[in-house]
Amino acid sequence: MNWLAHVLLSKKDIDFQIGNFIADPYKARPWENASDNLKNGMHTHKIIDSYSDKHEAFKKSKKRLKEKGILKGIIIDFVYDYLLTKNWDKYCNIKLKDFNQEFYERAYIQKDNYPLRANQIVENMISRDLLNYSSFAHLEKAFKRLDMRLSPKLAQRDSAISYYEIVCEKIDELEEDFLEFFPDLIKRVNEELRTLGEDKLNHIKI
Questions:
Q1: How far apart (Å, rounded) are the C-alpha atoms in residues 46 and 168?
Q2: Distance between alpha carbon 130 and the CA centroid of its chain, in Å?
Q3: Is there a contact between 96 and 4 (Cβ–Cβ < 8 Å)?
Q4: Who wins on pLDDT, 68 or 164?
Q5: Interior angle at CA 65, CA 45 and CA 68, nearest 5
Q6: How far is 47 from 87, CA to CA, in rounded Å?
Q7: Does the structure show a pLDDT above 90 at 1?
Q8: What number is the average pLDDT over the span 12-27?
Q9: Quick check: helix, strand or coil at residue 29?
Q10: Which positions ≥6 away from 70 have C-beta within 8 Å?
Q11: Nearest to residue 99, comparing CAs of 131, 128, 130, 122?
Q12: What is the band of 180 on the pLDDT scale with cuts at 50, 70, 90?
């Protein structure tokens, strides 16, 4: 799952949400003096990624793309955020626009309490509206952003934008996979939150 899902599948605490969002660039290693909520958010990010990679519906989605490709998992992460946006009201009792706006506002305030690198990552996310997957155009932009970050060696082997056409063609099948997968992921995150001594995700309908 990509950024929107990670923020959604978080305790409604800004440090927890940002920890869940920012875990990848920090390799889930919190900085010194990071709060327990931020650490737990990073931990939850790892649980989400591990569970997603092993789920049969996620594997099925990857197989719907081209036969070979080292970016297939990342592409499905992006596509599932688009499909989460499309099906948002099935899962969250807060309107998507309100949810994102509240997160951006709280993250903008909280970022100044973080180290410079984390501050800049959060600022970039807000300024570029990176939780927005409301159309195929936004999905295409996400693919292009990923390609800009690829090393020259990796870019010779695969590109995100090369998946765009087949994603558009297969979106109905991919949505079936997502609708099978996402309720299971919610249950897994709620189980993990219980082990952390946290309440379940009360903003989630399931």
A1: 29
A2: 10
A3: no
A4: 164
A5: 95
A6: 22
A7: no
A8: 94
A9: coil
A10: 154, 157, 158
A11: 131
A12: very high
SS3 at position 195: helix
Residue 67 pLDDT > 90, yes or no? no
Closest-CA residue to 20 (of 33, 104, 4): 4
List, in order, residues 6 or more apart from 16 with CB less than 8 Å away.
10, 37, 38, 40, 41, 44
Q: Report the alpha-carbon angle 125-6-203, nearest 5.
A: 110
Residue 187: how many CA atoms within 13 Å on its side-chain side? 6
101-140 per-position pLDDT tens digit = 999 999 999 999 999 999 999 999 999 999 999 999 999 9
- Type of residue found at 142: A
Residues 6+ positions from 150 with CB-CB distance below 8 Å: 159, 160
CA 34 and chain centroid, separation = 21
Distance CA 42, CA 114 (A): 15
